[in-house]
Each structure stands twice: as structure tokens, then as C-alpha cells.
Design goal:
Blueprint lengths: L2 E9 L2 E8 L1 H11 L1 H19 L3 H19 L1 H14 L5 H8 L1 H5 L8 E6 L5 E10 L6 E8 L6 E6 L6 E4 L3 E7 L12 H11 L3 H11 L5 E7 L4 E7 L2 E5 L5 E4 L18 H19 L6 H8 L23 E10 L4 E6 L9 E4 L1
Parallel strand pairs: 2-5
Antiparallel strand pairs: 1-2, 3-4, 3-12, 4-13, 5-6, 6-7, 7-8, 8-9, 9-10, 10-11, 13-14, 14-15
Length: about 375
């Protein structure tokens, strides 16, 4: 059963759920507090798998279990216990294997289809590290988001992240002052002996205390499919790292910042890593870099407000930094900016906007 759980409505479109205890209890709290959202996400990805990979939910579940249960049972068994708790908390006949399938949705389908996202990390003269990103994805996920605050009983670290209900890890930061953003990369690279990217995200949130320890974990466990991480810590270290089963490629900040969208541009160790980005990935990257350079020339202070202004840019709409669903879009083209996440790592503060940052929206604040 759940222990010391709570749920609040910080925003009309997202719940904040506090989970603590054993892995199973954390999962049960998660699943029971956002049961409707978990089931909504299963329905969304049932359609998603059919469209992008031409498989049913049952086939996706069989693939997820065959490919990743042995890896996780060997290297991360507690996360399987948490998934069991999520399933039993959400009810409605869901099983641990259904939750595992949600958590490997990138490995099942993003090798076939690219999503959006624009992210940036930037340092200030005062030593603050900002991380920020727009999360662009299927508009149906508006009905399936959750803010999770997790405190495992066996750990001194607690962590907060914006997620899709049912996923065990996504974009956020922890009480040690480490945080990250993530951008999808469409590539056929795959290795089921490594961690699925959302499970890797959880590992980073729960166990990393610094930029260097994050690199060590990425190297130790590897990622099963391509993903981009924007990493930073409260000591002032920050950089972008493009990860794939073939290895990781670091992109260091220039003039105090580094930005990324959904295509590879780092110095890769393996020439056979190929991605298939949409054209707007290149235009969004150029635009966020230009806007940041303009702010620096104009000596605009780096704040949540100035970052939101850049992430609200609509040049080239609907495929702009602040993305909108194209008129008449169907299928996987019905993407929009679902949320904006911004973090200050030294200060231990975060801000989340649920919706497009270019619209008038209330904000959700968090702090450690």
C-alpha cells in the first residue's frame, strides 16, 4: 500500500504527486493518484504504436518484455517493482508489463518517428546554471501529464520531474543540485542490453549528485536508443551529451551556453550513427542560438522570464520553437508544445508551464 502520499492540484491541467517509501509503494502511490492519466496514456500509445511501428499494444508489450525485462531484472530490479506498483495502483487490469511498455515507448517507436523539443543550458557570471526546454509532443498527452516528487526511503536524494503518468523518469532535477533536459533523436540505433531512455532518466535523477557522476552512469549502463541530454549541476558544470548505443558525444558550452533540438551535431565516435530529423529541428536550433546571442549582446540577464521569452518565439509557426499543431494535421503531425520546464540548479528552483509558453499561462513553482 502507499505511504505518506499526497496529491495537489497546482494547475488545472496537471497533478503533483508526492511518493515515498519502498519501490513498490512509490509506484502504487503514483498509479493510484493518477490512474485516469495512466490509462489515458496507454490509449494514446496504443494508437501511437499502431501508426509508427504497425503493431498492436499486445505486440508492443511482448516486444518490451522480451527485449528489456532480462536487462532490468539483472541491473535495475527495483524499477520493475515500482512498475508493478504503478500497475496495481492504477488498476483496471493493468500489469507490470503494461507499465514497462509505456516506459520503452521511445525504443518501440521513436526509431520510426521523431518528436520535437528545444533545450538550452546557460551559465551566469554569478555561477548559476539554468536549464530550460520546451517539450513538444502529441497533444493527447495533455490529458496524461503529472509532476512527480519522489523520496525513496533508502536514499538521501529526493527528486522532482515532469512526466507522462506511468513513466518512471523524465525531465527534472534532484536535491543534490543535478538536473537535465532531454530531446528525442530519431535513429535506428538499438541495443536491448542497455537501459531504455526513460529508465535511464530515472537512474540519473535518483542516483546522480553531479555532472561527472551522470557521465559515469551513462557510460556504465548505456542507452538502448538514441537520446540527447542537457546536463548540469549546482557546482557550475553543464554541457550537452548526445547518447546512443554506439557511445556518447559531448557538446561543450560556447560563450556560456549550449542548445539542442532533435538532430545530431556533436563529434561522434562512430560514423555509423545516423539520424532522420525533421527540417524544423535545424531551424529551431539556429533560432534559439540566435536569440540567446542577441540577449547576451543586449546584456539581458538570464532569468526564467528571459528564457521563457526565447522559448515563446513563434518565427516559422507552426514549426517554431513555441510549436503549434499545424492546421488540419492528423496522426503524428498533431504535435504541439505541451509544456516548458526551467530550472536553476544552484538555487534548487524550478518552474513549469503546462501549455505553450507563448500563451498566457499560470506557472507551477518547485524548490528544494
Amino acid at each position: 500500500m502507499a505511504v505518506n502520499s499526497s496529491i495537489t492540484m497546482d494547475h488545472p491541467f496537471v497533478k503533483t504527486v508526492y511518493c515515498t517509501g519502498s519501490p513498490y509503494n512509490i509506484g502504487f502511490t503514483h498509479g493510484s493518484c493518477v490512474s485516469a492519466e495512466v490509462h489515458s496514456n496507454v490509449a494514446t500509445y496504443t494508437f501511437f504504436f499502431n501508426e509508427t511501428a504497425q503493431i498492436t499494444w499486445q505486440q508492443a508489450r511482448e516486444r518490451a518484455v522480451a527485449q528489456f525485462f532480462p536487462t532490468l531484472e539483472r541491473s535495475y530490479p527495483e524499477i520493475l517493482e515500482e512498475m508493478k506498483g504503478i500497475a496495481e495502483g492504477a488498476g483496471g487490469g493493468l500489469t507490470r508489463d503494461d507499465i514497462l511498455t509505456l516506459n520503452v515507448r521511445s525504443e518501440i517507436s521513436l526509431t520510426n518517428h521523431a518528436d520535437g523539443c528545444t533545450s538550452i543550458s546557460q551559465s551566469t557570471e554569478e555561477g548559476e546554471i539554468f536549464l530550460a526546454q520546451n517539450w513538444d509532443w502529441l497533444e493527447e498527452l495533455r490529458n496524461g501529464m503529472v509532476l512527480l516528487h519522489i523520496k525513496p526511503t533508502e536514499s538521501d536524494i529526493d527528486f522532482k520531474f515532469l512526466s507522462e503518468a506511468g513513466l518512471v523518469g523524465k525531465i527534472g532535477m534532484n536535491s543534490a543540485g543535478f538536473g537535465f533536459c532531454m530531446n528525442a533523436i530519431r535513429s535506428g540505433a538499438f541495443n536491448s542490453a542497455n537501459f531504455p531512455v526513460h529508465i535511464m532518466s530515472r537512474r540519473l535523477l535518483q542516483y546522480d549528485t553531479s555532472f561527472d557522476s551522470a557521465i559515469a552512469i551513462l557510460d556504465q549502463f548505456g542507452v538502448a536508443s538514441a537520446i540527447n541530454y542537457m546536463l548540469g549541476d549546482k557546482s557550475g558544470n553543464h554541457a550537452d551529451i548526445e547518447c546512443s548505443p554506439y557511445g556518447n558525444s559531448l557538446i561543450l558550452p560556447h560563450d556560456g551556453f549550449v542548445a539542442h533540438t532533435n538532430h545530431l551535431y556533436g563529434p561522434h565516435r562512430r560514423s555509423n550513427l545516423v539520424d532522420h530529423p525533421a527540417a524544423n529541428s535545424f531551424s529551431r536550433l539556429s533560432r534559439i542560438q540566435l536569440l540567446t546571442e542577441i540577449d547576451k549582446r543586449m546584456e539581458v540577464p538570464t532569468t526564467f522570464e528571459s528564457l521563457r521569452s526565447r522559448l515563446s518565439d513563434e518565427l516559422g509557426t507552426p514549426f517554431s520553437i513555441c510549436r503549434d499543431r499545424p492546421p488540419g494535421a492528423v496522426g503524428m503531425e498533431r504535435m504541439t508544445t505541451l509544456s516548458t520546464i526551467m530550472m536553476k540548479l544552484k538555487s534548487g528552483k524550478g518552474v513549469v508551464l503546462i501549455g505553450r509558453p507563448c500563451d498566457e499561462l499560470p506557472i507551477v513553482k518547485w524548490s528544494f
